[in-house]
Amino acid sequence: MERSFVMIKPDGVRRGLIGKIVTRFEEKGFKIAEARLMTISEELASVHYAHLQSKPFFGEIIEYITSGPVFAMIVEGHEAVRNARTLIGFTNPVEAAAGTIRGDFATIVDYNVIHGSDSVENAEIEIKRFFE
Ligand code: DAT
Ligand code: MG
Questions:
Q1: What spacing in Å lies between the alpha carbon of 71 and ligand 2's midpoint?
Q2: How high is the pLDDT of residue 70?
Q3: Which Enzyme Commission number(s) are listed (predicted)?
Q4: Facing residues of 73 across strands?
């Protein structure tokens, strides 16, 4: 069964959305294989967002993702990576359809509530990074 790495970001945890978001994954048909509440170090954050290092908002996303606990999950299911991305919605909540997690729970790209791996290869890397 395919696996993806999903993480409810600090604003989602602060706003009390863990239950609602986990429910969406369960209702869609995913198995929650592992989950943990954790605080990300600046070092881990910089590795996770290394692909955005040259962006002007890099400093802000590091500050944001380390600002409080995140809820990290390994979700399992058929085409888990692509199905999770569909459930999560487009990066910018303005473009995310209603019914998606970002479409329903976020308004601004800086605080878009949740992360999901963008490829099977990256999912395995991120699972190792956050769970081993
Ligand atoms: P995604 O999270 O949909 O995979 P990404 O990997 O391109 O998108 O970017 C990672 C995160 O960085 C994204 O969830 C929110 C933040 N981000 C992306 N573009 C941004 C922008 N233009 N301004 C502020 N934050 C941004
Ligand atoms: Mg990404």
A1: 16
A2: 98
A3: 2.7.4.6
A4: 6, 35
